């Protein structure tokens, strides 16, 4: 019921989603200012985990959320590009898989925050608090950087071989 009509169960299961709506609507276009969020002071349970985007929306507004999401989308597109350019099949599939993991995780979190998807407990990558999530994402980005560096070294070797 909380997914379909959170206001009908506002005292129990719908509390998080309703307070997420309040935070996003209170932020407006430009937000109320960093550190000025009311919802994180006790209204929105665990605001630093799954619903960090709601707090960002309240403090930084729609513009701030769009900037964060744009940077996130740029990161995903760059990882896809690294995967497409990789000559090694394993490196290519690894990068495409990591980019897809980030895309799905971000989509599920944003969908839950704005009420398009059920709340699942998936963190927003690199922004939400979560030790194991942050660890896995950091290792994943390290793997992508390794693939990128290896491709750059191999490309330089190919150029040097053509010159000789």
Structural overview:
With 164 residues, the protein is mainly alpha-helical. Helices cover 65% and strands 0% of the residues. The protein contains 4 helices and no strands. The chain has helices at 15-27, 52-85, 89-114, 131-163. The N and C termini lie far apart (70 Å).
For the largest beta-sheet, the strand count, sense and barrel status come to:
none
Unreliably modeled segments: none
**Approximate shape:** elongated
Average pLDDT metric = 90
What integer value in Å does the Rg equal?
20 Å
Question: What helical percentage do the residues reach?
Answer: 55-70%
Roughly what fraction of the amino acids lie in strands?
under 5%
DSSP helix count?
A: 4
SS class: mainly alpha
N-to-C series of helices and strands: HHHH
DSSP strand count: 0
What is the topology?
Blueprint: H1 15-27, H2 52-85, H3 89-114, H4 131-163
Helix pairs in contact: 1-2, 2-3, 2-4, 3-4
């Amino acid at each position: 019921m909380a997914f379909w009509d959170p206001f009908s169960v506002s005292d129990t299961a719908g509390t998080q989603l309703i307070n997420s709506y309040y935070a996003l609507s209170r932020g407006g276009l430009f937000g109320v200012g960093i550190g000025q969020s009311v919802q994180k002071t006790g209204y929105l349970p665990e605001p630093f985990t799954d619903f960090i985007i709601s707090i960002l929306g309240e403090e930084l507004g729609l513009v701030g959320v769009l900037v964060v999401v744009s940077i996130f989308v740029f990161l995903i597109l760059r990882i896809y590009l690294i995967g497409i350019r990789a000559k090694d099949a394993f490196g290519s599939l690894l990068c495409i898989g990591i980019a897809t993991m980030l895309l799905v995780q971000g989509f599920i979190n944003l969908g839950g925050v704005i009420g398009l998807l059920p709340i699942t407990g998936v963190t927003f990558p690199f922004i939400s608090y979560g030790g194991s999530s942050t660890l896995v994402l950091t290792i994943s980005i390290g793997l992508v950087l390794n693939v990128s560096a290896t491709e750059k070294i191999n490309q330089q070797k190919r150029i040097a071989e053509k010159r000789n």
